[in-house]
Amino acid sequence: MHTDFDRCVRAVQSKDARFDGWFFTAVLTTRIYCRPSCPVVPPKVANMSFYPSAAAAQQAGFRACKRCRPDASPGSPEWNERADLVARAMRLIGDGVVDREGVPGLAARLGYSTRQIERQLLAELGAGPQALARAQRAQTGRLLIETTELPMSDVAFAAGFASIRTFNETVREVFALSPSELRGRAARGRRPSPSGVLALRLPFRAPLCPDNLFGHLAATAVPGVEEWRDGAYRRTLRLPYGHGTVELRPQPGHIGCRLALTDQRDLTGAISRCRRLLDLDADPEAVDDLLRSDERLAPLVDKAPGRRVPRTVDADEFAVRAVLGQQVSTAAARTLAGRLVTAHGEAVEDPAGGLTHLFPSADALAALDPAALAMPAGRRATVVAMVSALASGELALGVGSDWPKAREFLDAMPGIGPWTTEIIAMRALGDPDAFVPTDLGIRRAAGELGLPATPAALTRHAASWRPWRAYAVQYLWSADDHAINRIPAG
Fold first, then answer.
1. pLDDT above 60 for 192
2. What is the pTM of this model?
3. What is the H or E stretch that residue 320 is in?
């Protein structure tokens, strides 16, 4: 996108928010960079330059605009649409892997040399993994500065900086303000948050239909791990340094997010996982335009545009839950998962509500005597095989996973059918083209819309929906009167 100069100019001059996160505008005279929708008067065309990432703009010597805060724009939808090396690397960087394990750790997870990763990221994003992680650390630091009363030394290390000096220098360079000046500006008119709670706004590209997104999460919530309370979805989080709880509330123009973490170093990863859970970096205009071209799907798209694919904060957890949910109702799947949590989950405290446990990790489940898993023998065998593969690393479903390799492994597992593979691909891997033509709800909706109702014929017809078949699934499901399509009252 950033290489198409004329298209970028048109987006900036029209202040088109759809392109926020796709590219960044650098102003040569003021040495600042902005998002395309920046509210200030657009600069002269001769003074514009465009960069593919905030990190690239920062490396070129530009500082972030104080009006539009380009560092806080939605992420590029490309990183959740693609399965190549650059997209996998960006998802891992977003999850904080470089901060925790360095570039060698990133390379080890991806199975490539550090040189190859540096080369490909530089070619596509204009910045290497260290610079991209540095830009992310700066944004995390700003969040902590502006939303907490943590001492600046704690902010620095929680954001992933190696020293307070580096933290101070980076904040000044990126935002043209010292950490204390940032905090002073933010404090004016700010409501104090409860001790230990971070209150954030998660941006997204409009439109966003929250009905199926929050309806699905609420309808499938596992007791003790998730709940719907007072108009918000709440759940526990298992994170690299500790654990936490999150409250996500749909609001006009953003998602309200309240995080309580046992270790502030998990902030970057927690935000990344929440954004991924709600598919907030999607490009709904591109998705809906393509699906609307099918005259049978168009009425569903027009009725409630901007549907997202509900994903997950923990791919291993979702894989286990998908197995438990095979060939049973939503309520039965919740009951089975709830029993597993009560028996083997890790207890946590939640002063604000009814969250009691972390979902048991694959390692913990793999260490159990299979007889301890209270479920039918066939399902138990599949769960045991799944958690063993996850714990050993044979099956990788995390943000940096190889999608084709994971699919191939799932297809070969006894007890895992096409429906389970595709549901895991859709929600755990995040594949936007995952498709479940054997799903009863999909087949029923297809028949009512005049679409082919057999799996094979529907798959052939759905070729025109690629690469957005996972979104087509959400629209087809919306034709049914099911709890997953409605935000609960209260």
1. no
2. 0.92
3. helix 315-324
